[in-house]
TrEMBL record, chain A:
It holds the Pfam family BPD_transp_2. InterPro entries: ABC_transp_permease. It is found in: Cell membrane. One of its GO terms (cellular component) is plasma membrane. The keyword Metal-binding does not apply. Keywords: Cell inner membrane, Cell membrane, Membrane, Transmembrane, Transmembrane helix, Transport. GO terms for molecular function: transmembrane transporter activity. It is a multi-pass membrane protein. The chain crosses the membrane at residues 46-62, 69-87, 93-117, 129-147, 167-191, 212-234, 264-283, 295-314. PANTHER family: ABC TRANSPORTER PERMEASE PROTEIN YPHD-RELATED-RELATED (PTHR32196), AUTOINDUCER 2 IMPORT SYSTEM PERMEASE PROTEIN LSRD (PTHR32196:SF71). It comes from Actinomadura viridis. CDD domains: TM_PBP1_transp_AraH_like (cd06579). This is Autoinducer 2 import system permease protein LsrD.
UniProtKB/TrEMBL annotation, chain B:
Coiled coil: none annotated. Residues 1-20 form the signal peptide. GO terms for molecular function: carbohydrate binding. Residues 61-318 form the Periplasmic binding protein domain. The keyword Signal applies. It comes from Actinomadura viridis. The keyword Signal applies. This is Rhamnose transport system substrate-binding protein. One of its GO terms (biological process) is rhamnose transmembrane transport.
Length: 335, 361
């Protein structure tokens, strides 16, 4: 966790500042924004995105990406509905569906590590494959009428707070992930793999095994998110979560994780997830149309990818002009 | 080295915590044991209706279509918004740009936060919107489903464009009037398993059993799969296979347009009668050139108009959504709430050369 002293304008700090600005500004502009009901809803709406963003952060830090997460979510949602319809107990369905998530992640991971294929290509393929399987399981049918005990668990808040249960769980998992990423040898290995895979390998880091495990974790979390999605909406469908992977990746990039790997903090991603959710909620409350909402998110993303690069370029050119200054890891070098 | 030790622990931790979560409650909840759930809040009925209550001024209502920028839904919603102006309310249309199951949910929450008196929704998924709608009703927001229903306990009313029975039976009558009740007829449907089409066809077959249609004989039901090309070819096939065919009913907008294109350009023009369900813009040229005399569809403007007035009547306390209650729907006159909180718009509108230019959709 060594940062350049001049790194005061770290991107994740800027995202956090923007988040505070949106929150405070939102509370000022719209009387309906900062109340428990609305915040609880806005947070709950982020459940699946937030959960999946955790393993996605680890993958991207490692220089990998998993585009199949939303399809795993859809497949697991379809399976949940299908098994439920066939009369299985929800307590049996959940572990079974999680195993399917593990298998999906394992397939991604094996294709990437054993065959040495780029994760972008592999998961574009499995994204289509898993979604196809979801349609095989359920077709265009929608299964509903899940037990209230479980749908309540997915929709209600922890008593006395505006925090829905899935988000409370996310908070716990986020702490675990943050510790793993920023305070353990494993976390350092991830950054090492992301910045120089070969160097990491020769330094004795078991690159392939780490990647494989990360894909499996990504699969199982996406599978779990599929169950959360199903119970939260009370509707199991093959098209559930369509396109969600892009929001997750947008949040990870907006959070300051370098798409080339090796840089970023989980805190930034968490701030970005919250920023996306609250901004969307605020725009909606002010009757801003969906089209403008996508434009705002898109612009924010471009700025977030562009700004750190620009800063790095400026810094580098200064460093060259000013003589021998040890350059902090320059992401611009790779592009 | 440290990595090797920590890896399995990390993986195990993730798996164990996930499993622990799933096994936390080992009560054994299956579909059967939970089948009683889903009837949480009863739709309407708890308050008493006052049919003489005036429509409240300044009602805030919102239309939440399946998808914004869908031409059909825009017509429905704009008519509803115009109706709100008539009774001194404020109305708007908001909604997602994609018609996915869950995308309407955040809009429901937003509309509740904005303190709307009523939300009108054309549901993408009858259950996915249910939880938030029930929460909205608990806050005394009135819910009117239109065009596409939600689960029954998640709304106060459903404005149904037309009853399936009425659509089916009226199509037969429409054709019979044009061919004088005699001759071989065929049906050109969409896909073989389309629920709405098959329901209509069943009512058509039942209607044909009546003595006044004894001269008409249904020789074939063809399926064009709502594909323009295929419907075109199916029409061609029908006319070649049944040289004595007098009429075709195509209860699908794609099918009727394709059939009209084929008939209009063939020797059958003027000899074979075509009718069914279509939109005026699609059928205008075929009505003008005499290929088609009459076809039908519900009027989307009236659908939005009726839904808007129904929402106002609910929010003003004139009705609660119980069967048998009556309310006045502006120029459409008095309407009665039917079974399951359904209000039917009425018989489909019949379009012909005289009235087709009054419609633009």
């Amino acid at each position: 966790m060594k940062f350049d002293a001049r790194g005061l304008i770290r991107w994740e700090t800027a995202v956090t500042a923007l988040l505070v600005l949106v929150f405070v500004g939102g509370a000022g502009v719209s009387p309906d924004f900062a109340n428990g009901d609305n915040l609880s809803f806005a947070l709950g709406d982020l459940s699946e995105i937030a959960l999946i963003a955790l393993p996605m952060t680890l993958l991207v830090v490692c220089g990998q990406v998993d585009l199949s997460v939303a399809s795993v979510l859809g497949l697991c949602s379809a399976l949940t509905g299908w098994l439920w319809n066939a009369g299985w107990a929800i307590e049996t369905i959940i572990p079974l569906v999680l195993v399917v998530g593990v298998v999906c992640g394992l397939i991604n991971g094996l294709l990437v590590t054993r065959l040495g294929l780029p994760s972008l290509a592999v998961t574009i393929g499995t994204m289509t494959l898993y979604r196809g399987l979801a349609y095989v399981v359920l077709g265009t049918e929608a299964i509903a009428q899940f037990p209230q005990r479980y749908t309540d668990l997915a929709t209600t808040s922890v008593p006395g707070t505006p925090i829905p249960y899935p988000i409370a769980l996310f908070a716990l998992l986020a702490i675990v992930t943050a510790v793993v990423l920023h305070a353990t040898g494993l976390g350092r290995s991830l950054f090492a793999i992301g910045s120089q895979e070969d160097a990491a390998y020769f330094a004795g880091i078991r690159v392939k095994r780490i990647k494989l495990v990360l894909f499996v974790v990504s699969g199982v979390v996406a599978g779990f998110a599929g169950i959360v999605f199903t119970l939260r909406y009370g509707s199991a469908r093959a098209d559930n979560g369509l396109g969600l992977e892009l929001t997750v990746i947008a949040a990870v990039l907006l959070g300051g994780i370098d798409f080339d790997g090796g840089k970023g903090t989980l805190g930034g991603v968490i701030a970005a997830v919250l920023l996306i959710g609250l901004l969307r909620n605020l725009l909606m409350l002010n009757d801003v149309s969906t089209e403008i909402q996508s434009i705002v998110t898109g612009l924010l993303l471009i700025v977030s990818v562009l700004t750190p690069r620009l800063i790095a370029v400026v810094r580098e050119s200064r460093a060259k002009g000013g003589g021998a200054r040890p350059a902090s890891p320059a992401p611009a070098a790779s592009s | 080295m440290t990595v090797r030790v920590r890896m399995p622990r990390f993986a195990a931790m993730a798996t164990v915590s996930a499993l622990a979560l799933s096994l936390a409650a080992c009560g054994g909840t299956t579909k059967d044991s939970a089948s009683s759930n889903g009837n949480g809040t009863a739709a309407g009925g708890q308050a008493s209706a006052n049919p003489n209550a005036p429509i409240k001024k300044g009602l805030k209502i919102a239309f939440l279509p399946k998808q914004v920028n869908n031409p059909y839904e825009t017509i429905v919603d704009n008519a509803g918004i115009a109706a709100a102006k008539e009774y001194g309310g404020e109305a708007k249309e908001v909604g997602p740009s994609d018609a996915s199951a869950s995308s309407q949910v955040s809009y429901i929450n937003t509309l509740v936060q904005q303190r709307h008196d009523a939300i009108l929704i054309a549901a993408n998924d009858e259950n996915a919107v249910c939880g938030p709608l029930k929460a909205a009703m608990a806050k005394n927001v009135k819910i009117v489903a239109y065009d596409s229903d939600t689960a029954k306990d998640c709304r106060n009313l459903f404005i149904n464009q037309a009853s399936s029975e009425e659509i089916g039976r009226s199509q037969v009558k429409l054709l019979s009037d044009q061919i004088g009740g005699k001759g071989e007829i065929a049906i050109l449907s969409a896909t073989a398993n389309a629920t709405n089409q098959n329901t209509w066809i069943k009512f058509m077959q039942d209607e044909l059993k009546k003595p006044e249609y004894s001269g008409m004989k249904l020789v074939k039901i063809a399926y064009g799969d709502d594909d323009d090309q295929k419907s075109f070819q199916q029409t061609q096939g029908l006319l070649q296979a049944y040289p004595n065919l007098k009429g075709i009913i195509s209860p699908t907008t794609v099918g009727i347009a394709a059939a009209a294109r084929y008939i209009g350009g063939s020797k059958y023009k003027g000899k074979v009668t075509l009718t069914g369900l279509g939109t005026p813009n699609q059928m205008r040229q075929f009505v003008k050139d005499g290929t088609v005399k009459q076809f039908a569809l519900w009027d989307p403007k009236n659908l939005g108009y009726l839904a808007s007035y129904a929402a106002a009547a609910l929010a003003s306390g004139q009705i609660t959504g119980a069967e048998g209650e009556k309310f006045k729907a502006g120029k459409l006159g008095e309407r009665t709430v039917g079974a399951n909180g359904e209000v039917i718009l009425g018989p489909p509108t019949v379009f012909d050369a005289k009235n087709i230019d009054q419609y633009n959709f």
